[in-house]
Design brief:
By secondary structure, the chain is α/β, with parallel strands linked by helices. The chain contains 7 helices and 5 strands, in the order βααβαβαααβαβ.
Length: 221
């Protein structure tokens, strides 16, 4: 038996401000750092020796994983992949979720946030919030950097990366520190959740999801 542990990063500054963050590279709040530390303690209490560590390219996930590693007293170099990044919220990026619900209506904002295949309007490539204008992503070809994404789009980059780079290691213990939507994509794949039900899956910050695998690398019921 082996374990895959999925951890959404601790609270970020824009989580606190209720802003659509997406690919903007926002760091953790003090509360977020404490959430990451608590996640590390919960994992440590399970006495699971971690063999592989992965995070997105975004600092809120990377820093969460570094804090977890410190708690676990494990300094292994971890793999950072842009494919595990949060969903790109397009033109919603940086806007306040509550204000947008008042402006557009709660139903429309809910659909933009949670539906399977609805994308927000594209973000202008001149915007300072666009990934092509953020230093973190300078090594990624602009041709593959999105202007907006649905959850389906996020799934279609997360899952191929997972299958190619992580699936064959599921006989070992793995941690992935990522984001609400990239983890929702992974859960949809691993638990075969349909397109309608995935909209209701909540992924809280800093709360490890421990998934058991049998010797055949299948999710253990």
């Amino acid at each position: 038996m082996s374990f895959l542990i999925l951890v959404r990063h601790g609270q970020s500054a824009w989580n606190l401000e209720k802003r659509f963050t997406g690919w903007v590279d926002i760091d953790l709040t003090n509360k977020g750092k404490l959430e990451a530390e608590r996640a590390g303690c919960l994992i440590k209490n399970k006495n699971i020796i971690i063999d592989y560590y992965y995070s997105s390219l975004q600092r809120r996930a990377k820093n969460t994983l570094e804090i977890i590693q410190k708690v676990l007293n494990n300094k292994k170099i971890f793999t950072k992949a842009w494919q595990l990044n949060e969903r790109h919220y397009g033109a919603l990026t940086g806007l306040n979720k509550i204000e947008m619900a008042k402006k557009l209506g709660e139903d429309k904002v809910y659909k933009l946030r949670r539906s399977w295949d609805i994308r927000p309007e594209p973000l202008d490539r001149e915007s300072p919030y666009h990934p092509i204008n953020i230093e973190t992503y300078k090594k990624i070809s602009q041709d593959i950097i999105p202007d907006t994404e649905s959850l389906k789009d996020t799934y279609e980059r997360v899952i191929p990366y997972f299958k190619k780079n992580i699936s064959d290691k599921l006989n070992k213990n793995i941690i992935i520190a990522a984001h609400g939507n990239s983890i929702r994509a992974l859960c949809k794949h691993l638990f075969n959740i349909n397109n309608k039900k995935i909209s209701k899956l909540e992924i809280p910050t800093g709360n490890p999801l421990l998934i058991k695998f049998d010797n055949n690398k299948k999710v253990k019921e």
